[in-house]
Design a protein that fits this description.
This protein has 13 helices and 21 strands. The strands form 4 sheets. Strands 4, 6, 7, 8, 15, 16, 17, 18 and 19 form a 9-stranded mixed beta sheet that branches. It has a 6-stranded mixed beta sheet with strand order 10-2-1-14-21-20. A 3-stranded antiparallel beta sheet has the order 3-9-5, with no helix packed on it. Helix 1 runs parallel beside helix 10, helix 1 crosses helix 13 and helix 6 packs across helix 13. The longest helix is centred in the first third of the chain and has 15 residues. 32% of the residues lie in helices and 25% in strands. 49% of the residues are buried. With 414 residues, the chain is α/β, with parallel strands linked by helices. The structure holds flavin-adenine dinucleotide. Flavin-adenine dinucleotide binds next to helix 1, strand 2, helix 2, strand 15 and strand 19.
Length: 414
């Protein structure tokens, strides 16, 4: 019986497996499709450590209603999905109250401010340093109105430890000459970085985890079985079980059903995001750029410029609606004039989103040898190694240097 069974081989599960192996534990890793597409393959590649405020910013509900009417807007909703998602939306609204907003921001900063301490050793070990670009990022504003409206949030971020400085129109042009000359303001984010190709990182990490001795099992886990107290198990499609001393659930947007199978309630939805990768863009960006008003980004990956973002609530099963990728590309072409789209590749992924933007990291309150590591929303790549380090602390009974109270699944108890 292995010490640890990790369920889910996206970037978070792999980071947990890597950290456990580094502790000298034996690991089995199960995924329904190791080579298949997953959220961790197609994301924007940003190490977005400056994103220490929740998505549910005060006033968002009002803006959201305007966005829903805009076909190029950043938000889409499948109305059929609304009834089942209602508790999630209500909790999302609650997250924007001033007290809760601040509390969540502190908890996000506690993770984000240690990201490089955890990520760099993992990147070094898997051979990912040569495609890790610490060049900062720029948030761009087209209007004075939007720039000044965000002033309080930038002030709070500085209090939380985020290093930033304002750029004027001329400075934005100097930093990124490929941008259309329409941005009146920019914010330079020193500590943001990006990687060359998220899919390649997943492959490198999986290769390393394999080389460190993990056993890889390709199968679907249908539920957890904790009836044998000291040997929890993952039950597979054919009814067989894999037992381990401890189980880590890292199945991204699909994690709620497994948590519920041991009696833990969670509010988790798929916040579907879209992008297009342009392999021969014909223009160059030096760093990731974030279009503040339109809520999308462009990242200069090694495999081309990736333009993406959007939030679509339509559940885990609905087919992708690539009109959302088209809409983002239309905006991208407006702001990056001359960008070429030959060979463009469209993609959709499921962000594992909690309503308060905080991940679920910690032991199950019902079953102490089941550990959760999911719900990272927009920040799964950013926080993967930190999550792995915290999970490893729990696996070896060490007190984590970051308190896990705020990330506990207990917060979703009715
Ligand atoms: C458009 C877009 C852009 C993004 N940009 C960024 C960014 O720039 N920076 C950043 O930090 N984050 C970004 N994210 C978020 C990030 O991609 C996710 O938070 C992260 O990939 C989640 O990783 P994960 O390992 O939890 O989930 P996943 O990558 O979804 O992996 C979950 C794994 O679990 C497996 N699985 C699920 N259920 C079962 C089961 N029952 N049995 C067996 N296996 C199962 C799946 O096959 C999958 O391999 C972005 C997301 C999107 C959609």
């Amino acid at each position: 019986m292995p010490d640890v069974l990790v369920i889910g081989a996206g970037i978070v599960g792999l980071a947990c497996a890597w950290s456990a192996l580094k502790e000298g534990l034996t690991v089995t890793l199960v995924d329904r499709d190791f080579d298949g597409d997953r959220t961790s393959h197609g994301n924007a590649g940003g190490i977005a450590v400056t994103e220490s405020t929740p998505i549910s910013v005060p006033g968002l509900f009002f803006k959201a209603s305007k966005w829903l009417l805009d076909p190029l807007g950043p938000l889409a909703l499948d109305w059929k999905h609304v009834p089942s998602a209602l508790p999630w939306f209500l909790e999302f609204q609650r997250a924007s109250s001033p007290t809760r907003f601040r509390q969540i921001s502190l908890a996000l900063a506690a993770l984000n401010n240690r990201v490089y301490d955890d990520l760099v050793p993992m990147f070094e070990d898997v051979g990912a340093m040569s495609t890790f670009y610490r060049r900062g990022a720029i948030t761009l504003y087209e209007t004075d109105e939007a720039f000044y409206a965000d002033a309080d949030e930038w002030k709070l971020k500085r209090e939380l430890g985020v290093r930033w400085r304002a750029l004027n129109q001329q400075e934005v042009r100097e930093y990124e000459p490929a941008l259309a000359p329409v941005f009146r303001h920019g914010i330079f984010l020193e500590d943001w970085s990006h990687i060359g190709d998220p899919k390649q990182l997943v492959s490198q990490l999986r290769g390393r985890v394999n080389a460190l001795g993990a056993r890889l099992v390709e199968d679907v886990v249908t539920k957890l079985d904790v009836s044998k107290g000291d040997a929890p198990a993952a039950v597979l499609r054919n009814g067989e079980s894999i037992h381990a001393r401890q189980v880590v659930v890292a199945t991204g947007a699909w994690s709620a059903a497994l948590a519920e199978s041991v009696g833990d309630r969670v509010l988790l939805d798929s916040e579907r995001g879209y992008n297009t990768t342009l392999p021969q863009p014909g223009i160059a960006l030096s760093r990731e750029v974030i279009f503040a008003e339109r809520k999308f980004v462009a990242t200069p990956l090694d495999i081309g410029i990736r333009i993406g973002g959007a939030a679509e609530f339509a559940g885990l099963k609905a087919a992708p609606n690539y009109k959302r990728s088209d809409a983002l590309l239309t905006l991208g072409k407006r702001f990056l004039p001359g960008i070429r789209d030959e060979g463009a590749v469209q993609w959709m992924g499921h962000r594992p989103a909690t309503p308060d933007s905080l991940p679920v990291i910690g032991k199950s309150p019902t079953t102490a040898n089941v550990i959760y590591a999911f719900g990272h929303g927009h920040l799964g790549l950013t926080q993967c190694a930190t999550t792995g380090a915290l999970v490893a602390d729990l696996l070896v009974n060490r007190t984590p240097r970051t308190s896990l109270e705020e990330y506990s699944i207990k917060r979703f108890r009715k």
